[in-house]
Amino acid sequence: MSLTIDTGRLLGRLRHLGSIGRDGEGRLCRLAASDADKAGRDALVGWIAAAGLEVAVDRIGNVFGIWRGPAASNLAPVMVGSHIDTVIDAGIYDGCYGVLAGLEVIETLKASGRAPDRPLVVAAFTNEEGVRYAPDMLGSLTYVGGLSLDVALATVGVDGSVLGAELARIGYAGTEAPGFIRPHAYVELHIEQGPVLEKEGVAVGAVESVQGISWQRVTIEGVANHAGTTPMRMRCDAGHAAARVVTFLRDLAAANGFGVATVGCMEFAPNAINVIPARATFTVDLRDPDSARLHALEEGLSGCLAELMRVERVKVRVEPLARFEPVAFDRDIVGHVEAAAARHGLPSRRMTSGAGHDAQMMARICPAAMIFVPSIGGISHNPREHTPEADLVAGANILLEVVQRLAAE
Ligand code: GLV
Ligand code: MN
Ligand code: MN
Asked: Do 352 and 208 form a contact (C-beta atoms < 8 A)?
């Protein structure tokens, strides 16, 4: 009989982790390396240790649970995982599902007496969300050598904190060198965070690629002046210029047909009702599955800013925050996901991830792929994020099967 995960244990842990890091208004907010993140990490490490796995933490705070198996094989391990940091006012599934399902898969195999040939590792990577520290996926990027450890530790957050100091403060500045385990393969189970699977009535996404991401911070400098006395034609209004960028990007991405553009943060200075904004600072998040089209979006933004400098007489400064090309996943693992879904009688489809994931970094050092399960209403980065229990359990059982397959290679 084929093995299945412990549904109650997985769902109970998801709910428990989702209760950690709630603010006074009940909003879930476990930003990377915060006190709330520490509480979440402590719960995870407790479960990893209770399962009889070795706990390891690397110098950028990535947490690992390692099961070497009874034979203590020297073969490269199969790694599963994701992240447990969250956005502001988050749902409980993004990232946490992949980490807890990964632990669940290893515990299930450990208890079954069916030891795989390869060691198994579950990973929870630091600062995947990128809300507090840019770039996003910083922990996995550092793990694969895409960012030097010194630069990563010196990263200054939106609140002025320094990541290395915060990791030390919460007790998660570990001792292992990032990259200390080089996996045979990496598989990440995640909620889709988009509408496709639910809309098409498909239970499983076999994720074959991730779209490219470009993050920038733009500062527009105008001139503060009196809101009542300054004629419209005499204004040098940073707020108005910023608003023009927001609508320009929306139209640009809509015309492209594939890409997406988001201005998620905006601040005015001095931020007063009767003062024309002297400064507007905002973030831009551009994404597209196609590299050339992503470049075109970036060029569109540059052109728009140049035009504003001319027409609105503002000064503009642009700071790159993150830049990742589209990533193609390993075809064999994608095939294993489809085959496992078929064996479970579940419809699957190949798809591109709209969100960024640690798997796209791990793909730089080993074969990697992802499994998606449906998100109701396509809603994520929102407390209403939801995936039915049956889909969560099915996804974890698909992961179990794919891991068994990879561990036997
Ligand atoms: C991570 O959640 C992202 O922004 O894609
Ligand atoms: Mn995620
Ligand atoms: Mn996320």
From this structure: yes
| The CATH fold of domain 7-210+327-407 | Aminopeptidase (3.40.630)
Ligand 1 proximity of 29 Cβ (cutoff 6 Å): no
Per-residue model confidence as pLDDT tens digits over 49-97: 999 999 999 999 999 999 998 766 799 999 999 999 999 999 999 999 9
Helices (H), 72-189: 96-112, 138-143, 149-153, 163-169
CATH topology of domain 212-324: Alpha-Beta Plaits (3.30.70)
Q: Separation of 14 CA from ligand 2 center, angstroms?
A: 14
Report whether residue 354 contacts ligand 1, using a CB cutoff of 6 Å. no
**Ligand sitting nearest the alpha carbon of 354:** 1
b/e 322-359 (16+ beta carbons within 10 angstroms → b): bebebbebbeebbebbbbbbeeeebebeebbbbbbbbb
Cα dihedral 134→184→121→206 (10° resolution): 70
Q: pLDDT tens for residues 93-117?
A: 999 999 999 999 999 999 998 888 9
Ligand with an atom nearest the CA of residue 353: 1
Which residue's CA is minimally distant from atom 2 of ligand 1?
129
Using a 6 Å cutoff on CB, does residue 57 contact ligand 1? no
